[in-house]
Design goal:
Nuclear Transport Factor 2, Chain: A, six-stranded antiparallel sheet, YARHG_sf, WG_beta_rep, YARHG domain-containing protein, YARHG_dom
Length: 618
């Protein structure tokens, strides 16, 4: 999605810590297991003694992947581990957990790090114990081991499910579940003789439909379709969609009266009588409003109309720009129009969220995740995991209004409101690139928060976007962003215009990887436009970068190659920056690219034309 730190994935304070490295593990050059055993034993000793301050020293608080490690989030996570807090912030722990250090398993990564899976036992004196696990990524740094990442998403869900058991053990079923849910539980038991799992109940007009699975389902990995096949059963417990699909979407989710299905990345429609209305052979489906057609269907580079009588037209000519304007207006205050008579909920007595299987056009445009968990109005007196109370997408802002250009860029603003112990909301921006020549759309997230602040705050002073196609495959997007740029002598920048570079690869819009805050120094040759704009510098809004920030920009190029700075101030600055900086190389001249050299020379010339500063550049 992104290669720079971003806050948009906030689910709870501690779930932010729970994104693991996506690195293929290999067993080679194994460090001694005994050292890791001792590391985890020492770690667990502090857990048992509730020494959260000591535990915090085991973590390397650096920028990792797309997320920010925030001290307050780490502190909350440690309070959970030491039984001083529930995973829901502000709630006391009602259960007890212990780490089984002797049961740890180790996987060694290509970069020499280790992933340590630690079994965790959840306990309450009135309930059977339950096992879950947390996986730590451990890195050797300066002759000591540190934890650089945590995979605890399943732990959080298991914890909340067990906590719900503890909290509701004195309640009756009627205190928790609606009558239609209780009846669905009974019907689902009957279906287990034919299917391996019954995942969800969809209540439509007071009638319940059942999403069933043959095989092993993993809802953390929607792409695990090779291990399962999904089908749909009607209220009379008759199979109306055979269990042979990778995903079955919400009933009425894309087009009223129809059910979108997907198999091998192809989409189509069934009706509720079990008839295939649209063959499952299309790459994209666009429902339309204010149109004489129900929708548009794309197969490769060809388009077809889905007519209102459910017939499919012959191949037709479609203007993708006009098509985008006819998509349903996405501005929901309640996803999937939830009500007590129309809701899709999980078949679980412990995980109480409702479910949205997002219409494929929304996931294709990157506006909603494939599976979204929401507050369930049919459950009472329970906590929800990873649930939203509201989700809003604004109208698109057009960044390329000229009709003569090949590309049009549309920016959507998305706000997700969380419930329970989660942050109140988080914001995310998304860009959709409309290729008018090829009649295609591509999308990518926009990084708008490089700061350590919680909640994905949008910039207040330096907002706004601009878009430029550098060529037919490389694009420059400038966006306002919040930052935490600390500079020598207590100078700082809190907001600025940040550049991101996107390119088309395998029919996807992908961000070029860099950890530089001033990304343009890596990808383009600078001119005056790159230092002008909007910057919240030392609490004041300025339109041009001051010399100390230019020096940061220059030194950031060197820091990207782990240059050993002679000035300790700059070494300190970059050790706390988004760069995974390590002072390793006394000379990096042979690593500089032609663009690096051009920009270093340009910055030096610009600095020489400004007032001197007492700060040394290198």
């Amino acid at each position: 999605m992104k290669t720079k730190p971003i806050i948009i994935g906030v689910i709870t304070g501690i779930v932010i810590l729970g994104l693991a490295f996506f690195v293929k593990a290999k067993y080679f050059d194994k460090p001694p297991v005994a050292k890791y055993d001792q590391f985890m034993q020492d770690f667990n000793r502090h857990v048992v003694n509730k020494n959260t301050d000591s535990l915090a020293t085991y973590f390397d608080l650096v920028w990792q992947l797309d997320m920010v490690w925030q001290p307050e989030m780490l502190n909350h996570f440690l309070k959970v581990l030491t039984n001083q807090s529930s995973v829901n912030m502000g709630n006391a722990a009602v259960l007890k957990l212990t780490l089984n250090i002797k049961g740890c398993t180790y996987t060694y990564l290509e970069n020499g790090d280790a992933k340590i899976k630690v079994p965790v036992k959840l306990m309450d004196r009135t309930l059977p114990a339950q096992w879950t696990a947390i996986t730590f990524t451990v890195h050797k740094k300066a002759n000591k081991y540190v934890i650089t990442n945590v995979d605890n998403l399943r732990f959080i869900e298991d914890y909340l499910a067990y906590e719900n058991k503890v909290n509701t053990k004195s309640l009756t079923d009627k205190d928790i579940y609606s009558p239609i849910t209780l009846q669905a539980f009974k019907s689902a038991e009957k279906l287990k003789t034919k299917y391996d799992s019954v995942l969800w109940f969809s209540h439509i007009n007071k009638q319940t439909y059942f999403y069933v699975v043959k095989g092993k389902w993993d809802y953390y990995d929607v792409d695990s379709a090779k291990t399962y096949k999904m089908g749909l059963v009607n209220p009379q417990l008759q199979e109306i969609i055979p269990a042979e699909y990778d995903l079955i979407y919400n009933i009425n989710g894309s087009i009223n009266g129809l059910v979108e299905v997907e198999k091998d990345r192809k989409r189509g429609f069934y009706d509720l009588n079990g008839k295939i209305v649209v063959p499952v052979e299309y790459d994209q489906i666009f429902p339309l409003v204010n149109s004489e057609h129900l929708g548009a269907l794309r197969k490769g580079n060809s388009y077809y109309w889905l007519e209102k009588n459910y017939s499919v037209s012959e191949e037709t000519t479609v203007n993708i720009k006009e098509l985008m304007a006819q998509l349903p207006r996405v501005n929901w205050t309640n996803l999937s129009h939830l009500s007590k008579t129309d809701v899709m909920e999980m078949n679980s007595r412990d995980n109480h969220s409702s479910v949205l299987i997002s219409p494929s056009y929304l996931t294709d445009l990157n506006l909603v995740s494939a599976i979204k968990y929401l507050k369930n109005p049919l459950r009472r007196n329970v906590e929800f995991f990873d649930a939203s109370s509201a989700y809003k997408v604004t109208e698109a802002e057009d960044l390329a209004r000229a009709d003569t250009g090949r590309f049009q860029a549309l920016v959507y603003s998305i706000r997700d409101y969380f419930i329970g112990g989660r942050s109140e909301f988080y914001d995310v921006k998304n860009v959709v690139l409309v290729d008018k020549k090829e009649n295609r759309t591509f999308s990518s997230d926009i990084l708008a928060d490089y700061s350590n602040s919680d909640g994905g705050e949008a910039p207040a002073k330096c907002d706004g976007y601009s878009f430029k196609a550098l060529n037919d495959t490389l694009f420059e997007l400038r966006a306002g962003a919040t930052v935490d740029l600390s500079l020598p002598d207590e100078h700082f920048v809190k907001e600025m215009l940040v550049y991101q570079y996107l390119y088309l690869h395998n029919n996807k819009l992908v961000q070029k990887p860099t950890n530089r805050l001033f990304a343009f120094t890596k990808f383009v040759k600078m001119d005056e436009s790159y230092i002008r704009g909007c910057y919240l510098y030392n609490g004041k809004t300025v339109s041009e970068l001051p010399p100390v920030v230019l020096r940061y920009m220059k030194n950031e190029i060197y820091a990207d190659y782990n240059y050993i700075f002679k000035d300790k101030q700059w070494k300190s600055v970059f050790e706390g920056s988004i760069l995974d900086y390590k002072a390793e190389n006394a000379n990096v001249d042979d690593r500089l690219t032609d663009i690096d050299r051009y920009n270093l020379n340009w910055i030096n010339q610009r600095l020489n034309g400004q007032a001197a500063t007492k700060l040394a550049a290198r």
